[in-house]
UniProtKB/TrEMBL annotation:
Belongs to the FAD-dependent glycerol-3-phosphate dehydrogenase family. It comes from Thermogymnomonas acidicola. GO terms for molecular function: glycerol-3-phosphate dehydrogenase (quinone) activity. SUPFAM superfamilies: FAD-linked reductases, C-terminal domain, FAD/NAD(P)-binding domain. GO terms for biological process: glycerol-3-phosphate metabolic process. Its cofactor is FAD. The keyword rRNA-binding does not apply. InterPro entries: FAD-dep_OxRdtase (IPR006076), FAD/NAD-bd_sf (IPR036188), G3P_DH_FAD-dep (IPR000447). Pfam families: DAO (PF01266). Residues 5-346 form the FAD dependent oxidoreductase domain. Keywords: FAD, Flavoprotein, Oxidoreductase. This is FAD dependent oxidoreductase domain-containing protein. PANTHER family: GLYCEROL-3-PHOSPHATE DEHYDROGENASE, GLYCEROL-3-PHOSPHATE DEHYDROGENASE, MITOCHONDRIAL.
Length: 413
């Protein structure tokens, strides 16, 4: 049993956790009640954070973000649109905050350059003419599902087994090991890592764990049909609602609202909250006020409970050891962001491996060639082969999500 590990959750954190554990020599199985990247990881706004957003009030998270941002630019540039990001001031209070922001960015190792507002307006035609100050930071856009699929493929090539569409019900201690009860059966492991984030409580309660510092926080985004900005646009102020507009492919995404909720599977987005968010966003990009949005989508983030204001909760992470609840070897991950998913997964794997004598190493990856190597590893099928005939055409970039999806269907082969 010493070499067997279970990871619950196939989002970005769970995928990296499983990859690192498998590379360390463990026999790993990933469980998920749905598909890869089907929860929080598949419903964020698409931003690869520079950390500037958190530099003033959450410097630990800011440093984590910039470190991972730079690393992913090397290891996964294929999935990143290097748009750059701007913090823009619309009034005197914003301008004053810019001084604190620039100082905090310097302390966190984040490059933040003053940009002439007139020059910025030439680059961003739809930006408000009220912009009084602007800072350029290394924000970017990352294509979440395509990247998650690449991490999952690397994990599969490293030996990870996937048990998707098979939710875990509970974890119990059995004769010195941990028994995972899923919808399809039971199996035993020496370590179990729960990375289901905001969806953790039913599993934990069924496992006898009541006290867990989780603040499930809903964030809603609005999608507009049209690319109204070319860069990630942030309001130059403390993180708040409606202060991000970014380009994602051919659409624009406006975010976000943060509301602590009780049940991540059953919550409502209120029209007045969306209206408030859009009122704030259109101060930065006025054309939004004249356009009809296409859709609203929401995610639930696994913030660490610390106060009543979710905006003040750290975006860093914590690893909770349930040994004190009589389940040694059972760990849960809290917090983190898509940007820091690799770091969180590495640390979760490192902690888990301590229970079984394996050594997790921090290795460099090349996700830019993952799809090609996975095709060699697993082989194509008729759908994949047909799709690949269109690569090299005008629509190659538009076909990447389809390729990611088709290849991810081979994870359980």
């Amino acid at each position: 049993m010493d070499g067997r590990a279970a990871v619950i959750g196939a989002g970005i954190t769970g995928l990296f956790t499983s990859l690192y554990l498998s590379l360390a020599g463990m026999d790993v199985t990933v469980y998920d009640r749905s598909d890869i990247c089907s929860g929080t990881s598949g419903r964020f706004h698409g931003m690869l954070h520079s950390g500037a957003r958190y530099a003033v009030n959450d410097p630990v998270s800011a440093r984590e973000c910039i470190t991972e941002n730079m690393r992913l630019r090397r290891e996964a540039w294929r999935f990143i649109d290097d748009t750059g990001g701007y913090f823009v001031a619309l009034d005197g209070e914003d301008e004053e905050y810019g001084d604190s922001l620039r100082k905090a960015c310097a302390e966190a190792g984040i490059e933040a350059q003053e940009m002439d507002p007139e020059e910025l307006l030439r680059r961003e035609a739809y930006l408000s003419r009220e912009v009084r100050r602007a800072l350029l930071v290394p924000d970017a856009v990352i294509h979440g599902f395509e990247f998650c699929a690449a991490v999952a493929m690397e994990a599969r090539m490293a030996g990870v087994q996937f048990s998707l569409f098979n939710g875990v019900r509970r974890v119990a201690s059995r004769d010195g090991s941990l028994e995972v009860e899923s919808e399809k059966g039971r199996d035993r492991y020496s370590v179990v890592v729960n990375t289901t984030g905001p969806y953790s409580m039913p599993i934990l309660k069924a496992s006898g764990i009541e006290d867990f510092p989780l603040a499930p926080t809903a964030g809603s985004m609005v999608v507009y049909g049209g690319r109204y900005v070319n860069s990630v646009i942030n309001r130059m102020r403390e993180p708040s609602d409606g202060d991000i507009v970014l380009p994602y492919g051919e659409v624009s995404v406006v975010g976000t609202i943060a509301t602590v909720i009780e049940d991540p599977d059953n919550f409502k987005v209120h029209e007045e909250d969306v209206a408030m968010m859009l009122d704030e966003a259109k101060r930065m990009v006025p054309v939004i006020g004249a356009m009809q949005y296409k859709r609203i989508y929401s995610s639930v983030r696994p913030l660490i409970r610390s106060s009543d204001d979710p905006r003040k909760a750290t975006r860093s992470f914590a690893i909770i050891d349930h040994g004190t609840s009589g389940l040694p070897g059972f760990l849960s991950v809290l917090g983190g962001k898509f940007t820091t998913g690799r770091l969180v997964g590495y640390e979760a794997a490192r902690h888990a491996s301590e229970y079984s004598g394996f050594h997790v190493k921090d290795v460099e990856f090349d996700f830019n060639t993952t799809y090609e190597r996975f095709l060699s590893f697993r082989g194509g099928d008729r759908a994949v082969d047909s799709l690949l005939l269109h690569f090299g055409s005008t629509d190659q970039e538009r076909l990447m999500p389809a390729l990611a999806f088709l290849l991810s269907r081979r994870l359980m082969d």
